[in-house]
Task: inverse folding
């Protein structure tokens, strides 16, 4: 397969998901520079030159300061190293997946590769694992529960074969303690296994003490054979899992969309709260219109804020007057010397003497009394 050329995109893109896993054999060959075929490290000479196509070949980088890499031509400090690959004739355990391999072997039957769970438990755990909203910690907890239940099962519910504990034994070695019995009643399978060594015991008595300790060795070939039979029993559920995966992806996309809308709504709420806070802290309020008594047929705008400070102990009047059936409120006014003038009765008599013509104080435009609402709107526009 030819490597795809990288082209930088000008547009920003969102990453849908990231997958982690092992590279395939073809990908390993593509990323490698040499094929390692020699088992020797150095040539049999006095100079100790690395063997070509060995694990110390200079095409994968140099290990000495006086030499350069034969692939990139850089020295020891600048060369990042290059890959080489080795063809394996037999499978081996990957050190990074060794613990997971043991967990899988503990959960399956070593004869038929079925999961060591009963019908009811299998259905319960299967329904739980199909939930699309399960978190990583919940799946990890379910995996631990399944492993604990499978380790307690001695006989497979499908084929009836005897299964024992699976443990790590030494460096990258796994044993299956199938024939280790701690019960008073020995299983016939264990008895048949021990009796198969009868002829060997007759020729060598020292073997008799080692027979109870004999266990089954699960080498990489045996483990690979067991794992290769597992997908056959999962084939029936493949379409169900794919449909659930699509549903989960749709739900995740919908969740991301809702989260974006929620973030936008929160930002809008914060802006409105800030605007409301600014409006509350403003010193000037919308003007209140009052009759201008010194000029006939005129109105003036008076703010709610005073230009002179209130004196301590002064009283305030919240008076409401009725003019031609309309209620006119004259905001809070202070009873000090500056506000003294005509009495309320005199102001009422002055209002009754007003004509039916109202005039804008700025542009002198006239309105009749029945159009006083239009006059107020005009004054708002005129003073803006």
Result:
């Amino acid at each position: 397969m030819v490597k795809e050329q990288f082209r930088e995109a000008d547009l920003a893109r969102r990453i849908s998901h990231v997958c982690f896993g092992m590279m395939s054999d073809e990908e390993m060959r593509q990323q490698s520079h040499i094929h390692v075929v020699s088992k020797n490290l150095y040539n049999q000479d006095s100079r100790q030159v690395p063997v070509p196509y060995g694990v110390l070949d200079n095409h994968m980088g140099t290990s000495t300061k006086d030499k350069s890499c034969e692939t990139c031509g850089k020295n020891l400090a600048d060369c990042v190293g290059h890959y080489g690959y080795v063809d394996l004739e037999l499978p081996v355990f990957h050190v990074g997946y060794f613990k997971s391999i043991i967990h899988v072997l503990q959960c399956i039957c070593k004869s038929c590769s079925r999961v060591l769970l009963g019908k009811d438990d299998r259905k319960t755990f299967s329904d739980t694992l199909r939930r699309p909203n399960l978190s990583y910690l919940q799946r990890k907890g379910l995996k631990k529960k399944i492993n604990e239940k499978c380790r307690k099962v001695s006989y497979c519910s499908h084929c009836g074969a005897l299964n024992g504990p699976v443990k790590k034994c030494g460096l990258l070695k796994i044993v299956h303690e199938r024939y280790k019995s701690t019960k008073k009643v020995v299983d016939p399978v264990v008895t048949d296994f021990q009796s198969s060594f009868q002829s060997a015991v007759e020729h060598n008595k020292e073997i008799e003490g080692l027979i109870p300790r004999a266990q089954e060795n699960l080498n990489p070939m045996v483990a690979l054979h067991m794992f290769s039979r597992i997908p056959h029993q999962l084939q029936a559920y493949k379409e169900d899992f794919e449909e659930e995966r699509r549903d989960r992806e749709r739900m995740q996309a919908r969740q991301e969309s809702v989260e974006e809308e929620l973030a936008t709504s929160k930002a809008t709420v914060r802006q409105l709260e800030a605007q409301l806070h600014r409006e509350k802290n403003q010193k000037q309020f919308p003007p209140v219109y009052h009759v201008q008594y010194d000029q006939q047929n005129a109105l003036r705008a008076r703010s709610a804020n005073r230009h002179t400070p209130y004196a301590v102990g002064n009283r305030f009047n919240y008076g409401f007057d009725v003019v031609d059936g309309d209620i006119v409120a004259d905001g809070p006014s202070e009873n000090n010397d500056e506000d003294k003038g005509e009495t309320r009765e005199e102001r009422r008599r002055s209002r009754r003497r007003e004509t039916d013509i109202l005039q804008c104080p700025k542009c002198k435009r006239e309105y009749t009394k029945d159009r006083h609402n239009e006059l107020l709107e005009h004054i708002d526009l005129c003073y803006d």
Confidence is low (pLDDT under 50) at residues 300-340. Residues 95-245 form one domain.
